Amino acid sequence: MNHRAAPIERAETRLAWLLVAPAVAVILLVSLVPIAVTGWEALHVHDLRLPWLGTPFIGVGNFMEAANDPRFGAALLHTVAFALISVPLELMLGLALAVMMHSVVRGRAFIRVSALLPWAIPTVVAALLWRFMFEAQTGILASSFQTFGLVGPAFDWFVHPLAAWVPIIAADVWKTTPFVAILLLAGLQTIDPALSEAARIDGASPARGFLTITLPLLTPALVVAAAFRMLDALRLFDLAYVITGGGPGTATEPLSLYAFIALMQRLRFGYGSALSVIVFLLTFAFALVWVRALGRSLSGAQS
Amino acid sequence: MRARPAAVVLAVAGALLLAASLFPIYWMFAASLMPESRLFESRSLLPTAVTFEHYRALFDERDFLVPIRNSLLVSGLTTIVAVPVAALCAYSLARLRMRGKGLLLAFVLAVSMFPQISIVPPLYLILRELRLLNTYPGLVLPYLTFSMPLAIWLLTGFFRQLPRDLEEAAMLDGATRMRTLRDVVLPLAAPGVASTAILTFLYCWNEFLFALSFTLGPDRYTVPVAIMLFRGRYQVPWGEVLAATVLATIPVALLVLACQRRIVAGLTVGATKG
């Protein structure tokens, strides 16, 4: 290419920016400006119920309050624990589902539809469905657990602080495993079947062939799927809000839900914004770490 | 012969996974047809007595058509606004010479990962100031925050998959970029645009947090918010809730049945580009 751009190229660059401009303007307006405003709000006292207080600047006061707020600490712990439990489950089950989808010859369309349905239905619907199945009196799962003697009679899943997590995690795993499977299936389809064929001819068992050939080649797809799922899990809101409402007490309250309550129920916009900023920073930090790891693993896979 | 046990294990595991996938959805349909009393007694997996009472109540007593209309309008409008604007941007990112393309794409991806809660407070204050709370634009604007980056990301992937030759031939024949975009690229890209539109619509249809925060009354509730608020303080009218969840699922199920390939293409194009 010439060092000095020819007029036609300059025209192309101008067109390129022209085409990009509307979308970038929209994103700036509806996402970036609001994020900045959230950061600004977080440095102020802003209570919608006490408008006469005005919005005095208090620096990191809201963040200090969060640091000393046991409910915030618990919510942070809940969010991280939820992500660390549900995402590995989804990756393992998703991998199993992907391998199966990859190996079947007939009925692919049926399998694809049955996998896509849980992913596609609204999260609120999935949440209500799992709440219904775990409900003490009506729930088909609650009563099955009783029938098999896994829990005592009249055990109420939503009264026990740890048991209340089970329906939330179950719903998340149920709803997002297909998504993981579809990403992994795409990864599997890019792997040359000749490779595992060669391993088989060399006398490797299917399990060994899978572990030494397929899995390493699938690592980039696994890393991408894990990143998407972690980012989603760290902002958990819908499932907790609908299934348990954060209860019993605040035993299943994740960060997003606590921020929502501070904002929309207590109308403490300063403190709620600070909590929102923390959720944002948490996912952002995770994404940064992950992108670097992803870069390393991809360059490792290529070399 | 050595592959046999592995194949059997795979088939059994696969059947179990599929059953686990489908059973809750089946159960939602079946239970929505059971009389309220049966919901609490019956342990049968088949609806022993079928009633449409819950569906009748949904429309006669709860006016469920209103949230359905709201959801269709908001999701449809968002898709109509987001996809064309995103398509122009995506074409530019996939094809044209410009600096900072990689940076711009990374920016789009980063924005698409913003946790929704982190922009709820300013959007609420802004929408209140503009008197847009509890209106359709008051939902479409927030919905652009996730649908715009999503659509750009997907469409860039789709445009990159298109062969360049036809475009170059058209331009050698003297067609301008815009004309090439309209007459050559768009028809070729139609399937990708369709995938993107379907996914955008689905994400809007399923959205909950913004709709919960920025609507104030039943006249503007979307389907997820309306269903959620059926729940009384102490008593859940499960029959009607289930009937409503079935109705919320039907459009989604139809889309999945009709466009399964397109949806899978959309889900994978965004993730496999690295």
Largest sheet report of chain A: none
- How would you describe the oligomerization state of the chains in this entry? heterodimer
Number of helical segments with 4 or more residues of chain A = 12
Distance between the termini of chain B: 38 Å
Instruction: Please summarize the sheet with the most strands of chain B.
Output: none
Radius of gyration of chain A: 24 Å
**CATH architecture type of chain B:** Orthogonal Bundle
- Please mark out the parts of chain A with pLDDT under 50 across 5 or more consecutive residues, or reply none: none
Indicate the overall shape of chain A.
flat
Q: Which stretches of chain B are low in confidence, meaning pLDDT under 50 for 5 or more residues running?
A: none
Instruction: Give the helix proportion of chain B (percent range).
Output: over 70%
Calculate the terminal CA-CA distance of chain A, rounded to whole Å.
Answer: 29 Å
Number of strands of chain B: 0
Number of structural units classed as domains of chain A: 1
Q: How many E-type strands of chain A? A: 0
Which superfamily, in CATH terms, is the homologous superfamily of chain B? Answer: MetI-like
